[in-house]
């Protein structure tokens, strides 16, 4: 029977990879007797997947329900006491309350960040684990922000405190100082995050001081409040300041009331046990005694470690606890066993007595049989019962009883963490809110919706008129054998696996089979009349197994079967029709690796497609797309994620059919660079240099209309020659783009603005050119910007209609220069002199630049007609053409990035009707789109081409010895180190670097191999786009360059010359896309073959 919301807590464990989340979860699970004491800390129960065990990292979030008997403190200063009073227990003081805690263990590796996001949505409080030695890692920072965004109440666990003593050899006072600093830096991170959130809220005019105060309070870690746990998950011990104060009081170690003692226990205070007074402790004043925390919290634990280590060495064992080993007295005694009476163990016993109390007082567990050993016999009994022989098992057997970690954590969760009801009402108002329905709903349905929303806000328990709402945050797949449900329908027996949704019940009570629930997908907007309706089956989550239950009340987490057919990544369930889906957050996860998947045998295609669909459903961060070419692209967050997904796809979802997986696909973008003399507007116009190299070599020279393009300008002619549009393409730097999108000057953008202003001829008078003026003109002419850093402008001559010319021509065609037009065209196209006039007239406007002011228009009738045609039929399609061109560039059909396109002038052919009227030719929007697309591509081809690469940010820890290998691997892969800093007090160096995505594959194994494991696995996330500053088509031309780079490059691949990175990538992408690749046409080193044969 599941308890009501106020006896329930939903909590997730989050941390950087390997900081000990799963080990911590083991300890909590052990307290429920699900796993044995001996295995806790090493089993990693929640890593149930064999792959997880093999790699030693968590890859899927898994949940488990735990019971805990919680004694609310008598004099609680905690604000939760108010809500506890409902149960009637806190009035009587220390009556035990039976709580149910749903624990969700999340993965720490960035590749599985999506799993963390869904666990954050599911839970109300977060156990934030930080490794005491490694300190705050990059992932810790991002997790703090994400947990804040999801409005969770955090509990900080400083884990692996044992390492400070045993690996780093710090004494208890040094440890205290270090921990204090760690908490301070954690608080600094949180404070700056809250500050920036507050300014954002102010900007948006949100002012909710009560909620903000609560947030500030929750995100301030203060051991006195009990939201900091000091722990060693490996050895099962841990405590908070409130539990420690209670324990020290009970054991009469410090005769001071716990609420008062707490104030001094963690702080620069020392205690004089003779006078019973608390004094200030000064860090710098040597010999001034130890702070209370060091003396009463850490020292007994340190003593136990030392005692056990001493005991081990006394029987001739090598101490494995301390890094420096310990003395081996007698090698023969390798199998000797540490007894309770071994020398050194008395130190353990005395530490237990001097610093503590009977733990049954601190944590009365029902049926607990583990009082603290008082004598050597007691200790021996415990050791033999749990079979503890090795040092670490003895240490954990003793410390687990002395300062039980599970109690410290579970108590803190019950005390600090809000109940689901409290969370919905006060803490997580944004995260647990339903979307608002459209305003045109009828009053009745609005009323019903409000009722549902109120029920969610109150987390109302089941009742006759209470709507049931549940939200499925994610899906997971599991084998049928782990589901305990004899009635599970077996219609889809073809697969061994079923897909279950993981849900949080928001109000009412979810029941198996009885009720049909409406299902709302994340995009539901209220007007879909036939919302899906289904019966479901509910299961409780117990790690890797699922147990069927008939109903799940509000405030609990459960798994739901029978949602697979909906094919939605999140679902909101309700028994009423008027409900709306939950808001949800977009945390902007971006898939980094993509591969193409195809079956080896074509007959398996259907199976593969079904498998891919299931995979993308069960793992929300997997993206599956199909391209026009029939590829099936699988996109994952990182390499490990990809490997795991492919393994799942093959073994779980596709019945082991054979798959062919392509090499990782890297995304590039295309852009362009400035010409050297482009800043000089007039000189650039008059420049008649020959076309750039790429425009002369296949396949790039095959672009239609390339003959009408020159140095970034193209006069693109519509099909049928009814009109021509002159456009220009120039680079648009990121800072200018940012100015345009925010419509204001941004720091550091001045130079770029002035440069583009000069190049576009924004003004006649160049001395008066200023950044703000350029921005003003640009904004005036701006037509559209897209998300990729591109912009479309319309020169002012065109927008007022000056440069729209009607061309009177007998054959209804605009002027097409003979020498430029393609030779195969019919030759009887003798240009009308009129056409040339108009052509020249529009040319004139190009000389005016972007902001035309000086020329007065001499518009005639034909021009009027042309203008009308342009503004009515054509102009609207220009944007379409621009967008189409930006979607794939001319080099390798990758998206274009950082390019500005300017529409400069338009000529439209106008013919005379027999009745004397003039009419423009029939021109459709489609023609404009096509012409503009090819025009922009040609314009780009006649400019210096550049590739843009995605760069990844990489963070890792390395020892000094690993640095050399790290740098050599990075520089080989064109990586750049951004920062490297020593982690305080360790010999670890935290390195941040960027590396091009194309060079990032296989980085982790290579680093591991080259550095012999001296560096940790790198964490890769997307960082930014950066132009690869290499001209893909460059060849040595001058004498000097030939000397430097050699003549032979010309002969190596005579089409493109130097084999540089940019060209390599372009070829790679073209190859993959099945486009024509230059080198494939050319016989490599043909003359060599000839010479060889001659010599024969
Ligand atoms: N010395 C010491 N080692 C610990 C402690 N807690 C965990 N470890 C070790 O740290 C390693 C990682 O532990 P896990 O529990 O798998 O870490 P995790 O945070 O779950 O890792 P991911 O799920 O992959 O992010 C294991 O080798 C543990 O034995 C601790 O308190 N002290
Ligand atoms: Mg783990």
UniProtKB/TrEMBL annotation:
<feature type="domain" description="Tr-type G">
    <location>
        <begin position="6"/>
        <end position="256"/>
    </location>
</feature>
<dbReference type="InterPro" id="IPR009000">
    <property type="entry name" value="Transl_B-barrel_sf"/>
</dbReference>
<keyword id="KW-0547">Nucleotide-binding</keyword>
<dbReference type="Pfam" id="PF00679">
    <property type="entry name" value="EFG_C"/>
</dbReference>
<dbReference type="Pfam" id="PF00009">
    <property type="entry name" value="GTP_EFTU"/>
</dbReference>
<dbReference type="InterPro" id="IPR027417">
    <property type="entry name" value="P-loop_NTPase"/>
</dbReference>
<dbReference type="InterPro" id="IPR000640">
    <property type="entry name" value="EFG_V-like"/>
</dbReference>
<dbReference type="InterPro" id="IPR020568">
    <property type="entry name" value="Ribosomal_Su5_D2-typ_SF"/>
</dbReference>
<dbReference type="InterPro" id="IPR014721">
    <property type="entry name" value="Ribsml_uS5_D2-typ_fold_subgr"/>
</dbReference>
<dbReference type="InterPro" id="IPR035647">
    <property type="entry name" value="EFG_III/V"/>
</dbReference>
<keyword id="KW-0342">GTP-binding</keyword>
<dbReference type="GO" id="GO:0005525">
    <property type="term" value="F:GTP binding"/>
</dbReference>
<dbReference type="InterPro" id="IPR005225">
    <property type="entry name" value="Small_GTP-bd"/>
</dbReference>
<feature type="compositionally biased region" description="Low complexity">
    <location>
        <begin position="84"/>
        <end position="94"/>
    </location>
</feature>
<feature type="region of interest" description="Disordered">
    <location>
        <begin position="74"/>
        <end position="94"/>
    </location>
</feature>
<dbReference type="InterPro" id="IPR000795">
    <property type="entry name" value="T_Tr_GTP-bd_dom"/>
</dbReference>
<protein>
    <recommendedName>
        <fullName>Tr-type G domain-containing protein</fullName>
    </recommendedName>
</protein>
<dbReference type="GO" id="GO:0009507">
    <property type="term" value="C:chloroplast"/>
</dbReference>
């Amino acid at each position: 029977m599941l308890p009501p919301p106020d006896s329930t807590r939903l909590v997730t464990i989050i941390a950087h990879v390997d900081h000990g989340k799963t080990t911590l979860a083991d300890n909590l699970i052990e307290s429920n007797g699900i796993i044995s004491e001996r295995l806790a800390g090493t089993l990693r129960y929640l890593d149930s997947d064999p792959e997880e065990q093999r790699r030693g990292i968590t890859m899927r979030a898994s949940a488990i329900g735990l019971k805990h008997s919680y004694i609310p403190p008598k004099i609680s200063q905690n604000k939760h006491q108010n809500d506890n009073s409902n149960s009637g227990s806190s009035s009587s003081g220390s009556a035990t309350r039976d709580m149910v805690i749903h624990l969700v263990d999340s993965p720490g590796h960035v590749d599985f960040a999506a799993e963390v996001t869904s666990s954050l949505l599911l839970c109300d409080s977060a156990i934030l684990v930080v490794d005491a030695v490694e300190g705050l890692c990059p992932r810790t920072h991002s997790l703090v922000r994400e947990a804040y965004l999801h409005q969770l109440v955090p509990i900080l666990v400083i884990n692996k405190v044992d390492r400070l003593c045993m690996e780093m050899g710090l004494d208890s006072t040094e440890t205290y100082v270090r921990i204090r600093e760690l908490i301070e830096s954690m608080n600094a991170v949180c404070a700056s995050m809250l500050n920036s959130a507050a300014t954002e809220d102010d900007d948006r005019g949100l002012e909710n001081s009560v909620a903000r105060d609560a947030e500030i309070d929750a995100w301030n870690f203060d051991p006195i409040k009990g939201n900091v746990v000091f722990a060693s998950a490996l050895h099962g011990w841990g405590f908070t300041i409130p539990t420690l104060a209670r324990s020290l009081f009970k054991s009469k170690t410090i005769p001071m009331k716990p609420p008062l003692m707490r104030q001094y226990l963690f702080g620069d205070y020392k205690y004089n046990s003779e006078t019973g007074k608390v004094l200030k402790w000064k860090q710098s004043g040597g010999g001034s005694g130890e702070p209370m925390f060091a003396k009463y919290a850490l020292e007994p634990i340190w003593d136990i470690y030392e005692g056990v280590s001493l005991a081990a060495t006394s029987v001739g064992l090598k101490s494995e606890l301390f890094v420096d080993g310990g003395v081996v007295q007698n090698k023969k005694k390798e199998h000797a066993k540490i007894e309770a009476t071994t020398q050194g163990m008395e130190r353990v016993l005395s530490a237990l007595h001097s610093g503590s109390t009977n733990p049954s007082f601190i944590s009365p567990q029902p049926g607990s049989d583990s009082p603290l050993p008082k004598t050597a016999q007691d200790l021996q009994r415990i050791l033999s019962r749990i079979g503890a022989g090795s040092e670490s098992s003895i240490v954990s057997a003793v410390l687990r009883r002395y300062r039980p970690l599970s109690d410290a954590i579970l108590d803190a969760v019950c005390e600090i963490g809000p109940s689901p009801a409290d969370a919905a009402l006060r803490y997580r108002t944004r995260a647990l809110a339903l979307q608002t329905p459209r305003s045109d709903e009828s009053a009745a349905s609005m009323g019903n919706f409000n009722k549902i929303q109120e029920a969610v806000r109150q987390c109302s328990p089941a009742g006759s008129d209470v709507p049931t709402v549940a939200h499925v945050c994610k899906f997971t797949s599991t084998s049928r054998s782990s589901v305990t449900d004899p009635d599970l329908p077996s219609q889809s027996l073809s697969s061994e696996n079923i897909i279950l949704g993981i849900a949080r019940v928001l109000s009412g009570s979810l029941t198996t089979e009885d009720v049909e629930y409406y299902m709302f997908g994340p995009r539901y907007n209220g007007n879909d009349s036939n919302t899906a309706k289904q019966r479901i089956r509910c299961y409780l989550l117990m790690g890797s197994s699922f147990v069927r239950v008939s109903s799940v009340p509000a405030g609990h987490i459960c798994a739901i079967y029978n949602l697979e057919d909906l094919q939605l990544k999140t679902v909101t369930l309700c028994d009423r029709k008027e409900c709306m889906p939950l808001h949800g957050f977009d945390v902007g996860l971006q898939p980094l690796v993509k591969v193409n998947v195809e079956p080896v045998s074509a007959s398996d295609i259907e199976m593969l497609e079904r498998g891919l669909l299931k995979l993308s459903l069960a793992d929300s961060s997997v993206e599956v797309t199909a391209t026009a070419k029939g590829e099936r692209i699988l996109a994952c967050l990182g390499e490990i994620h990809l490997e795991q997904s492919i393994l799942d796809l093959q073994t779980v979802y596709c019945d082991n059919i054979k798959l062919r997986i392509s090499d990782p696909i890297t995304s590039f973008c295309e852009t362009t660079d400035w010409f050297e003399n482009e800043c000089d507007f007039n000189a650039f116009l008059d420049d008649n240099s020959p076309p750039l190299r790429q425009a002369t070599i296949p396949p790039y020279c095959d672009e239609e209309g390339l003959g009408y393009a020159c140095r970034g300008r193209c006069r693109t002619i519509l099909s049928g020659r009814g009109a021509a549009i002159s456009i220009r393409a120039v680079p648009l730097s990121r800072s200018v783009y940012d100015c345009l999108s925010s419509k204001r000057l941004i720091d550091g953008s001045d130079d770029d603005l002035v440069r583009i202003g000069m190049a576009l001829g924004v003004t006649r008078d160049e001395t008066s050119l200023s950044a703000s003026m350029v921005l003003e003109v640009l904004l005036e002419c701006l037509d559209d910007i897209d998300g990729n850093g591109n912009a479309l402008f319309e020169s002012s001559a065109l927008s007022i209609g000056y440069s729209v010319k009607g061309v009177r021509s007998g054959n209804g065609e605009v002027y097409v220069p003979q020498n430029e037009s393609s030779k195969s065209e019919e030759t009887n196209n003798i240009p009308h002199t009129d056409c040339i006039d108009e052509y020249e007239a529009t040319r004139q406007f190009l000389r005016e630049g972007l902001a035309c002011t000086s020329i007065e228009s001499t518009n005639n009738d034909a021009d009027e007609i042309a203008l009308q045609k342009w503004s009515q039929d054509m102009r609207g399609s220009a944007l379409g053409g621009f967008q189409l061109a930006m979607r794939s560039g001319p080099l390798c059909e990758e998206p274009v990035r950082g390019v500005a396109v300017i529409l400069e002038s338009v000529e439209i052919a106008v013919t005379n009707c027999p009745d004397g009227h003039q009419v423009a030719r029939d021109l459709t929007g489609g023609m404009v789109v096509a012409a503009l697309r090819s025009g922009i591509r040609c314009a780009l081809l006649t400019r210096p081409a550049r590739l843009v690469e995605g760069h990844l940010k990489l963070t890792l820890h390395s020892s000094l010895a690993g640095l050399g290998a790290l740098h050599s691997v990075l520089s080989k892969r064109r990586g750049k180190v951004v920062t490297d800093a020593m982690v305080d007090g360790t010999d670890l160096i935290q390195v941040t670097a960027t590396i091009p995505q194309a060079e990032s594959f296989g980085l982790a194994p290579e680093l591991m191999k080259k550095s012999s494991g001296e560096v940790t696995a790198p964490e890769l996330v997307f960082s930014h786009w950066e132009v690869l500053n290499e001209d893909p088509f460059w060849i040595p031309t001058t004498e000097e360059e030939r000397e430097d780079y050699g003549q032979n490059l010309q002969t190596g691949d005579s089409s493109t010359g130097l084999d540089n990175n940019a060209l390599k990538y372009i070829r790679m992408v073209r190859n993959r896309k099945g486009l024509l690749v230059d080198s494939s046409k050319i016989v490599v080193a043909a003359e060599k073959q000839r010479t060889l044969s001659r010599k024969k």
